[in-house]
Amino acid sequence: MTAIGLIDCNNYYVSCERAFDASLVGVPVIVASNNDGCAIARSQEAKVLGVKMGDPVHLIRDRLTRHGVRVLSSNYTLYGDMQRRVLAAVDAFASEIEIYSIDECFVDLTPFETRDLTAHVNGMRDQVRRWTTIPTCVGIGPTKTLAKLANAAAKKNPLFDGVADLRDPVIRAFVLDRFPVGDVWGIGRATAAKLAALGVATAGQLRDLQMKQARGLGTVVLERLVAELQGVAAAAVEAVEPQRRGMAVTRSFGTPVNDLDTLMGAVSQYAMRGGEKLRSHGLVAGQLTVFFHTNKHRRDLPQYQASRRISLYPMTADSFELIAAARRGVETAWRDGHASTKAGIMLDDLVAAELRPRTLFEGDGDRRERLMTAIDAVNGRYGKFTMVPGSQGFKRDWRARADSMSPAWTTRLAEVPVINASR
DNA sequence: TCTGGGGTCCTAGGACCC
DNA sequence: TCTGGGGTCCTAGGACCC
After folding, report:
1. Using CA atoms, how far apart are residues A201 and A195, in angstroms rounded to an integer?
2. Is the bond preceding A314 in cis, omega lying within 30 degrees of 0?
3. Tens digit of each residue's pLDDT (9 = 90 or more) over A249-258
4. Cβ contact A248 with chain B strand, < 7 A
5. Quick check: A202 CB within 7 A of strand B?
6. What's the Å distance between residue A311 CA and nucleotide C15 C1'?
7. From the Cβ of A10, is strand B under 7 Å away?
């Protein structure tokens, strides 16, 4: 029988921060989104205080202060590097690892089935904790959906002590009958409402839905989901990363942008970063979309949103070409009198650089490629904004707020924690 | 007045995830 | 004053073709 595990780090961003700052342990902590806007990670203590995922920080500021909640800016460099360490610890305990998100991975545990799987994954959890201090929960099941559900059960119910194994049909039925259907992986608000109208409230009831009914209610996605709940796998653990379909660089501004020049500067930086991302994946893009818009929460202000798609021919990962395309888009879409609070670029039609269609009249692509390689090398070595295009401007007042960012503990030599032995 | 039966490709938008 | 930044997949409908 197939045994799929889902490993999920508890309160991941907060746990990463706690690994290097003992003063954060045992107190309520939240990590805010970019621009210090929303709460996107909460320690257990903060959850108990009623801080919800996505709560706007400025709206709950009073409550946070009253309860002494520590608010941190998000430090993605740290979280990314810690993920590497978690995966290294998991590696010896699994045959295949599929990275699902920054704090979660699916693993194929089938080869270890002859052992006590709970003891096996507990060994893995110990290893992760020793190497990173990060606590985890593990769900096990015959399909990915059931492994996800098992993981949620393991987190919610202390009886499981961090590991829930739903391979046993009796335990599985017991858990599914008590599991809210809206918490099932793949069931969002819209589908949950449709199901509620039919009287389907638990994962167990969803499992028992007729396939045709599932199809009619949702799409083929819901049909697959029901099969997975029944223990029939509709998706396997995929260790190889699938080809990317698109990528994006988008940001909210720290302060609204009123003039074309400044917006051009921001968009230039995003396009530059987009090029870097393409090159780091060995890809070229065939299409670039640039967009910007006003603050949608402010009904009292005039609203404007614009987006322009530009075909890239020949396909490219050249930052300067991307910048030129993005600027052309902004130019045609710009309207005076609107303060933009967010902008971004999206890259689509991605193809591996070596497979890209050649065009008849390609210029001296080689030199440009070497230039890009050199820029990437410099910025990789000396920090992200060492070499920048002049077009992005030098003031950059629009940069997102990040007032409480922890140091790059693990990725910058100057910020590595120092143990003072001299006392 | 009557007016087939397939295809493909593209885009926009919805739904969902972390 | 202050509300994130990424992604994926699917469907419907239009344009176009033979």
Report:
1. 7
2. yes
3. 999 999 999 9
4. no
5. no
6. 20
7. no
Calpha distance A226→A145 (Å, rounded): 9
Nearest protein residue to C8's C1' (by CA)? A245
Digit-coded pLDDT (tens) for A354-411: 988 877 767 667 888 999 999 999 988 888 888 888 888 888 889 999 999 999 999 9
Tell me the residue type at A79: Y
Helix count (H) and strand count (E) of chain A? Answer: 14, 13
pTM summary value: 0.94
Protein-to-nucleotide distance from the CA of A375 to the C1' of C5, whole angstroms: 25
Euclidean distance between CA atoms A184 and A372, whole angstroms: 44
Nucleotide nearest to A148 (CA to C1'): B17
* CB neighbour class for A297 (10 Å; exposed up to 12, middle 13-18, buried from 19): exposed
- Nearest protein residue to nucleotide C4 (CA to C1' distance) is A33
Q: CA-to-CA distance for A386 and A171, rounded, in angstroms?
A: 56
Residue A294's identity, in one-letter code, is T
The Cα A4–Cα A121 span in angstroms is 11
**A148 in contact with nucleic chain B (CB within 7 A):** yes
A39-42 and A163-165 strand pairing: unpaired
**Separation of CA A245 and C1' C14 in angstroms?**
24
Q: Is A109 left (phi over 0), alpha (psi -120 to 50) or beta?
A: alpha
Nearest nucleotide by C1' position to the A40 CA atom: C4
Quickly tell me which residue has 């009831």 as its tokens.
A205
Q: Is residue A215 within 8 Å of A222, Cβ to Cβ?
A: yes
DSSP H/E element including A174? helix A169-177
Listed as ranges, the nucleotides of chain C within 7 A of a protein C-beta are 1-11
Note whether A113 and A141 are within 8 A (CB). Answer: no
CB A274 within 8 A of CB A290: no
| Chain B nucleotides near the protein (CB, 7 A) | 12, 14-18
- Cα end-to-end span (Å), chain A: 57
Q: Is residue A248 within 8 Å of A345, Cβ to Cβ?
A: yes
